[in-house]
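Consider the tokenized backbone below.
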């Protein structure tokens, strides 16, 4: 039996999936299986996956169910003690599994181990800035407002942890054991992490190294931000059903943080009007966002206004200058561990 089951959902990623799988095969820790879940991908992704000659790779095919459904299928077929998730457009550093396995082996109370993530562009080149989440003493409040796990390629989870939150659903015509909520097409990660924090005694804890390379999609449409917000609102509604006190006390602040995040995404999409709307709505939703994180909130507000009123070339130079300062600050934090 392998120590780790690596679950790789695949849908329309022929440009990236080969590199994703290669980053798993290049791990310094080699006691793993790779479960590639073909979610009815319409392109050549699975043909590329079949080129890898390694008996640790299994390809599981299914009708399209979305990311949550592909992960559920992978979990149901997994044999490992630990489960690692890799979205097929992301990459891992070579020592990722080694570091997470050591973490989980050393601390039996930790049910979900995650890490910092480095951003890469569409070509796989580093963007020189990182997701820098809180690493220890993670509470349901912090998960709700800030989601320190960050992205779906960051965590390695004990199978026991997921077993503790499993439920039965018959969304596809017959009862199945599920772990992620397939009714959600976005925000399914944070919904799962919240259930772990609220319904079990397992600890969520992060590693300081950036072991995940998270690919930034610079394209997209502003309309997708409203879909993301709507999906997040469904998570809040579901969580309120079993943890009403948490949502009643912290839901508005969590929404403010979500709106601020979407405002930054609108800035990246160069939609100044939407960015201003979202950041102003964030501040009016809950002023605690200003009290708790005055600098980040002010910078988001400033970026939205500058985008609206300065020439695009000048804005790009300002943005590049700001990112260089962020890079230096983050590198100092990472160096301290």
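A designed sequence for it:
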């Amino acid at each position: 039996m392998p120590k780790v089951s690596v679950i790789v959902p695949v849908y329309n990623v022929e440009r990236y999936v080969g590199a994703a799988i290669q980053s798993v095969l290049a791990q310094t820790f080699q006691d793993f299986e790779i479960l590639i879940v073909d979610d009815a991908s319409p392109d050549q992704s699975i043909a590329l996956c079949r080129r890898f000659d390694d008996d640790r790779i299994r390809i599981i095919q299914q009708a399209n169910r979305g990311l949550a459904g592909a992960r559920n299928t992978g979990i149901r077929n997994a044999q490992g003690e630990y489960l690692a998730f890799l979205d097929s457009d992301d990459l891992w550093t070579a020592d990722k599994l080694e570091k997470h396995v050591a973490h989980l082996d050393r601390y039996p109370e930790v049910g979900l181990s995650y890490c910092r993530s480095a951003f890469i562009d569409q070509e796989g080149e580093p963007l020189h800035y990182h997701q820098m989440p809180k690493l220890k003493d993670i509470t349901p409040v912090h998960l709700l407002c800030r989601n320190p796990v960050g992205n779906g390629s960051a965590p390695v989870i004990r199978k026991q942890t997921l077993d503790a939150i499993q439920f039965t659903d018959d969304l596809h015509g017959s009862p199945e054991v599920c772990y992620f909520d397939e009714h959600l097409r976005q925000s399914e990660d944070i919904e799962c992490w919240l259930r772990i924090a609220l319904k079990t005694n397992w600890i969520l804890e992060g590693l300081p190294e950036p072991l995940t390379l998270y690919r930034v999609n610079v394209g997209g449409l502003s309309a997708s931000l409203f879909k993301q917000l709507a999906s997040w609102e469904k998570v809040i509604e579901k969580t309120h059903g079993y943890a009403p006190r948490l949502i009643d006390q912290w839901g508005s602040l969590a929404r403010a943080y979500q709106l601020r995040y979407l405002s930054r995404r609108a800035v990246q999409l160069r939609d100044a009007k939407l960015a201003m709307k979202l950041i102003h709505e964030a501040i009016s939703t809950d002023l605690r966002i200003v009290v708790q994180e005055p600098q980040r909130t002010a910078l988001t507000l400033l970026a939205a206004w500058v985008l609206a009123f300065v020439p695009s070339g000048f804005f790009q130079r300002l943005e590049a200058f700001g990112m260089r300062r962020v890079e230096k600050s983050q590198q100092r934090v990472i160096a301290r561990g």
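The longest strand covers residues 203-215.
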